[in-house]
Amino acid sequence: METPPPAIQANQHIYRDYFDEEFTRTIDENILQLLDRVWFRSRLVGFEPFPARNNLARPLIFASNHSGMAFPWDAIVVLAHLFRKLPNHYHTMPRPMSAPMLSKTALMNPYLVQHFWKKCGCVEATTLNFETMMYNPSHNLMVYPEGVPGIGKGFNRKYQLQRLATSMLRMSLLHGTDIMPFYTVNAEYLNPYAYSFEPINRLTKKIGIPFLPLTLLLLLVLVQPWAFYLALPAQLTYVMGTRIRPSELTSKKHNELTRDEYLALSETIRQQMQAGLDAAVQAHGQQPYRWRELWQRIKENRRYFPFFLPFAWPAAFTEFERRFVKNGERNFNLGLDRPGAFWKLLWRNPLVLAYFIPILGWIPLAIKGYRGHRLGRRGQQP
């Protein structure tokens, strides 16, 4: 096997830093399975047989569109679904490259669960980390090549792929590996009719929030902080696209291409992916909510009430962190289907009440989040 350059070898600790398979499994079994089963009702289309590496020494690059103006539940759901439904392929599952802002900003971790993204396998999207992950001997890689602009696009540009980062193309050509596009459908309706304006975004970036979606739901965020993570019950569908081989799009080697040629090739890939996304939306995106199906799932899982509803999610996530992270418990069951479970979780985690206090509730949440985040960064292995 090829020996990586010294800088890559020194950085290969990112394969195991933070990533905790038991954390991922336990939070999926206790919380994410319920949310997915009732609220998001996700489907994988065309993922089996699971794609195999064309270059055994290099990971495939899975690439998808981002949902606009919403907390990235689309990424959480697809990763949990893959983790759950394809257990035989666990060690080849894609590890996501995530915007550094997601892990460095306390509020961008769901319900202030410390290092949520990294513990679930995410790696910060830096040039060195991207190059290092291309030498991962087992896991594949997942990228959202639109980056933050893809999340921040307004509802008026739903399902319109923004300019793709050329880094995906560069890595594919450099390492001789294919790109596996998959298309996220209906996630645009997690927070519909939301728009953003750059002057406002420049202000929110100063506190670590990449954009502020301007929508009627924003008023709810002020009076009910739990709504910061709110997602409407869009039925999320993930459609595997046609394998893209960038090496077949050019006769030049990666180091012979000019910047303009990289941009042109990247635009060709964007257009291919846009055509695939359009077809996926046409086939699976005409009824984003499927209200009758949602009501049926609610009735089937009524013993878990209210935990499949967004206002109760803070209690479940906070209790999970208390038991798994703070108490070090393993192999436990939160018992969300037990009578009075919601009130018991509030009793054990009184800070959860802050999620329901208008405006002032943000103060203790911010204090807890940023203080805990700083302590976590100092006290854990980087």
Decide which structural class fits the backbone: alpha/beta
Radius of gyration based on Cα positions: 21 Å
Number of helices: 15
- Helix-strand topology string: HHEEHEHHEHEHHEHHEHHHHH
> What is the subunit arrangement here?
single chain
Low-confidence stretches: 378-382
What is the mean predicted local confidence, pLDDT? Answer: 90
Note the overall shape. Answer: globular
- Strand-residue proportion: 5-15%
Provide an overview of this structure.
By secondary structure, the chain is an alpha/beta fold. It is 42% helix and 8% strand. It contains 15 helices and seven strands. The chain has helices at residues 6-11, 21-40, 73-85, 100-104, 116-119, 127-133, 148-151, 166-175, 198-204, 217-223, 259-284, 291-300, 313-326, 341-348, 362-379; strands at residues 43-45, 61-64, 94-98, 123-124, 140-143, 179-185, 237-240. It has a seven-stranded mixed beta sheet with strand order 1-7-6-2-5-3-4, with helices on both faces. The longest helix has 26 residues, at 259-284. The model is unreliable at 378-382 (pLDDT under 50).
